[in-house]
């Protein structure tokens, strides 16, 4: 799964003049993480894409909010992370017990 | 506020606390940190992919702004007075949640941007921050010994140049307006923008005129 194909496959990606646009650094990281893990074979790109379509249909929200939800779902389903540890870690960032630096 | 550290000034953007991330950002941070800890994800892979896809869209906006300011003194005045409005004037979006101040380099005055507490960065005009910008050594040494840091970037300033170090915060970001280099008289915005690098707008480099072009 090449990055090129991963991106070419996605029509909804926010773009400007054809290039990808990230409205905040976390959006770029959400994008990069999903592509990197599919490159490494941690999950199949098509599995991610299917969940992304699903999440986009579920709620009217920013593109990368759906992206992040789909990515998290794939990770949980594959048993790579647990819901409890993700929630606990996110709380640590939200309350600044960890430096919010990527 | 501003206080002196030897030969340079250190300006704070006001009570600087890292901004608590929003839910989505906290979640993205949580996923990335856990995946890296478990050895499932290489941070370098993420950086490479972002870089490959973001191209220069971020720094390109800042470079356009700088080029316009070099060619148009009225625009320069508006940029220094209200940078977000001046960025929008060129047809770009600038988020209303953070303010942007453009710092003007002048003969004898050089500006350097840092975020000492986290990695606040004017990403709306410069794209994603380079890895070194987020590193602990840069964050502390840019303040304690800016000249040594600049030297490591290959930038040696005259002894009598004042170095102002600006500490970014979540609601106030800075970008440097470098001095227009000699040999660029009559250049178009496009030609000028091509020599304005991201590093110039952070303040760790100066625009350089390529030799072949300068000789024309």
Our estimate of the beta-strand percent of chain A is: under 5%
Q: What is the molecular shape of chain A?
A: globular
Structural class of chain A: mainly alpha
Quote the beta fraction of chain B: 15-25%
The level of helicity of chain B is 40-55%
Q: SSE order of chain B in H/E notation?
A: EEHHHHHEEHHHHEEHHH
Gyration radius of chain A (Cα, Å) is 14 Å
Amino-to-carboxy terminus distance of chain B: 46 Å
Stretches of chain B where pLDDT falls below 50 for ≥5 residues?
A: 212-216
Order of H and E elements of chain A:
HEEHHHH
**Most extensive chain interface and residues per partner:** A-B, 48 and 41 residues
Number of continuous helical runs of chain A: 5
Strand order of the largest sheet of chain A: 1-2
Report the average pLDDT across residues of chain A.
85
Q: How would you characterize the largest beta sheet of chain B? A: 4 strands, mixed
Helix % of chain A is: 55-70%
Characterize the structure shown.
The complex is a heterodimer of chains A (102) and B (216). With 102 residues, chain A is mainly alpha-helical. Chain A is built from five helices and two strands; from the N terminus they run αββαααα. A two-stranded antiparallel sheet of chain A has the order 1-2. The radius of gyration of chain A is 14 Å and the shape is globular. Chain B is of the alpha/beta class and 216 residues long. Helix content of chain B is 44%, strand content 15%. In chain B, the strands form two sheets. In chain B, strands 1-2-5-4 form a four-stranded mixed sheet, with helices on one face. A two-stranded parallel ribbon of chain B has the order 3-6. Chains A and B meet through β2, α2, α4 and α5 of A and α1 and α2 of B.
């Amino acid at each position: 799964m090449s990055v090129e194909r991963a991106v070419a496959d996605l029509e909804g990606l926010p773009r400007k003049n054809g290039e990808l646009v990230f409205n905040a650094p976390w959006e770029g990281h959400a994008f990069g993480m999903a592509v990197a893990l599919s490159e490494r074979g941690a999950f199949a790109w098509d599995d991610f894409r299917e969940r992304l379509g699903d999440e986009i249909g579920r709620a009217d929200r920013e593109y990368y909010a759906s992206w992040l939800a789909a990515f998290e779902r794939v990770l949980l389903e594959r048993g790579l992370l647990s819901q409890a540890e993700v929630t606990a870690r996110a709380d640590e960032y939200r309350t600044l017990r960890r430096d919010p630096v990527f | 506020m501003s206080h002196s550290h030897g030969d340079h000034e250190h300006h704070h953007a006001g009570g600087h606390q890292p901004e608590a991330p929003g839910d989505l950002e906290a979640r993205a941070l949580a996923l990335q940190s856990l995946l890296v800890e478990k050895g499932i994800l290489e941070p370098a892979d993420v950086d490479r992919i972002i870089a490959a896809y973001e191209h220069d869209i971020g720094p390109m906006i800042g470079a356009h702004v700088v080029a316009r300011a070099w060619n148009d003194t009225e625009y320069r005045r508006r940029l220094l007075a209200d940078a977000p409005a001046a960025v929008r004037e060129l047809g770009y979006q600038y988020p209303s949640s953070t303010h942007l101040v453009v710092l003007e380099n002048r003969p004898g005055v050089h500006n350097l941007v840092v975020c000492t507490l986290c990695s606040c960065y004017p990403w709306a005009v410069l794209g994603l921050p380079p890895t070194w910008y987020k590193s602990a050594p840069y964050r502390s040494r840019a303040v304690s010994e800016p000249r040594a840091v600049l030297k490591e970037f290959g930038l040696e300033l005259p002894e009598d140049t004042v170095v102002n170090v600006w500490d970014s915060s979540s609601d106030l970001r800075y970008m440097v307006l470098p001095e227009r280099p000699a040999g660029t008289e009559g250049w178009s915005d496009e030609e000028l923008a091509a020599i304005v690098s991201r590093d110039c707008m952070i303040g760790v480099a100066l625009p350089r005129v390529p030799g072949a072009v300068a000789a024309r």
